[in-house]
Structures are given as C-alpha cells and as structure tokens.
Amino acid sequence: MMTFTGYRTDELHRAVDAGRDDVAALLGETDLLVAGPFRADRIDRVRPWVGSTNQEFVLLTDRMADSLADLASTPDRLEIVVGVSGRVAVNGWAAPDVLDELLADLGTRLPTGS
Questions:
Q1: How far is CA 90 from CA 20, 49, 71, 111, in A?
Q2: Got the DSSP string for 51-74?
Q3: Would residue 55 be called left, alpha or beta, if left means φ above 0 and alpha means ψ between -120 and 50 degrees?
Q4: What is the pLDDT of residues 9-63, one digit of tens each?
Q5: 49/84 same-domain check
Q6: Contact, 100 vs 90, CB < 8 A?
Q7: pTM attached to this predicted model
Q8: Domain check: are 24 and 49 in the same one?
C-alpha cells in the first residue's frame, strides 16, 4: 500500500513516539510512504505520484522496492476521468496550454445515442 500523508517523516515518527496508535497502525500497513506537504511553489512535473519537489519517497517494506527502483524511468502522468454525469476530474500536472488542448472539445460532443 502507498500512503500520502502530507506530513514529514520526522513528524510521523514523533506522533508514533507520543502514543498515536492510529499513526503507528497506518505506517504498519504502508509499504511506500510519500512524506511531506504539498507545496504549490515547488511543483514537481517529473516524478510520478508526488506534487512537489520537497516530497520524498520512503520505503517502509520491500514490497514496492521495484516500483521505487523504476521511479527514474517512470514518467509522470496526467489522469483525466469523465464521469457518467459529465463531471471532469483531473489528477496530475500539465502545462495550461496542454490541458486546454486536451479538454478543448469536451463540451462540444453529443452524448452517445443522441
């Protein structure tokens, strides 16, 4: 399991040391931790799975070691999900002009069966 907390590793360890059983249980189930808060002033458009360059990958078990080893050759991706209702959700980073191009004709198509 991969966990994104928004907290730095040292903050999580202090919480465990302070008796936070919920944090200890979460870390006990986590194979790969993405630690650190998202920082809008440090956008990371290179590494997958993180939003900013201050975030770090911490391997807590060996179950995702291959994924972490392949990180340098894994490109960041943009995920666009269009729900049945027409709601559009975007996950990832893209330059505004690239995103505009990808989404430009979403509103111009008729629903299937019309």
A1: 34, 14, 22, 20
A2: SBTT-EEEE-SSTTHHHHHTGGGS
A3: beta
A4: 999 999 999 999 999 999 999 999 999 999 989 988 778 888 889 999 999 999 8
A5: no
A6: no
A7: 0.65
A8: yes
